[in-house]
Amino acid sequence: MKGFLCLSGASRNRTNDTRIFSPLLYQLSYGTRPACVLYKKAFRGCKDNQLFEKPQFLIKKIGEGLAFRLFTIPLDPVNLVLDFGNTRIKGAFFEKNEPIETFAFANVNELMANVNSLHKASKAMICSVTSAHGPVVEALSPFMITRVFEKHTRTPLHNRYNSAITLGSDRLAAAVGAYTEFPQQYSLVIDAGTCIKYNFITRSAEYLGGAISPGIPMRLKAMGANTHALPTLEVTTAPVQLIGTTTHESLLSGAILGAACEADGFIDRYREQYPDLVVVLTGGDAPLLADRLKNRFFASPLLLLKGIHTILEYST
Predict the structure, then answer these.
(1) DSSP state of 107
(2) What gap in Å lies between CA 142 and CA 51, rounded to an integer?
(3) pLDDT values of the chain reduced to their tens digit, one per residue, 316 residues
(4) Selected catalytic residue, list 83, 170, 191, 285
(5) In which domain, by residue range, is 95 found?
(6) Known catalytic residue: 48?
(7) Domain total for the chain?
(8) End-to-end CA distance of the chain
(9) Is residue 242 domain-resident?
(10) What is the pTM of this model?
(11) CB 78 within 8 A of CB 94
């Protein structure tokens, strides 16, 4: 296999090569960090010129998925995590347990249009509260180890939720994220998204449950949809008045300040039982609560993604 590591593409004739390459073959030829030494057995009996001059031979020899990974596995493995929420799909690449890149897609169609950009990972974990993730699993599986976070997936937490089969995977993943960042602590996760989820973890790594209430956009929509005279408002980042002097201001005060007061009330009640409680605020609407909470808390925008990554590493 003398000279085999030169296949990273720097010495190839790009004009001649790319005329005959499919997109997969093109990426094989210009992979940045080859790891072919891991697969020497797959090439036993192959001649060097077969691999350099006829990439199609490589595909036929070991298959598309392995061939792709052969030339794109980084020296430090990169993991992919995806969170399919009710409104968006969020994701991140992790290297050495740290997020190195984050991104978001409006819907699964946008993700599928950009799925090739995710192929640099060696393992993936998908957490989904919808049924839209199926095509993505199929698209990623040939190129990396792909797992879906399901009820039976192993986690570092002991799940004490009485109806575990109905527990949202996002709630448990956020709890794992808090456990990862604050081990051996009583922790309350406030995840402000489509719904506001309250998740409690004991210092002995037990997930007990919590509460679910309408998220801020849902509150505004509900008031508009279920009344005759009230308008449906969008969430605003503008200052919200405690005393609304118009119907518009009153709706925003009720939805946004009401959610903040609710969260403070939950924190107070938890701290009555657990005085050293750690509160972690996360979720897309967390900024709407952050400046309005009276209690102390830690802000962790990537908590859910970190939890999914911890589960990926723990279960594979």
Answers:
(1) S
(2) 21
(3) 333 333 333 333 433 333 333 444 434 433 333 344 344 444 455 554 444 444 555 555 556 555 555 555 555 789 999 999 988 999 999 998 999 999 999 999 999 999 999 999 999 999 999 999 999 999 999 999 999 999 899 999 999 999 988 999 999 999 999 999 999 999 999 999 999 999 999 999 999 999 999 999 999 999 999 999 999 999 988 889 999 999 999 999 999 999 999 999 999 999 999 999 999 999 999 999 999 999 999 999 999 999 999 999 999 8
(4) 170
(5) 78-148
(6) no
(7) 3
(8) 32
(9) yes
(10) 0.75
(11) yes
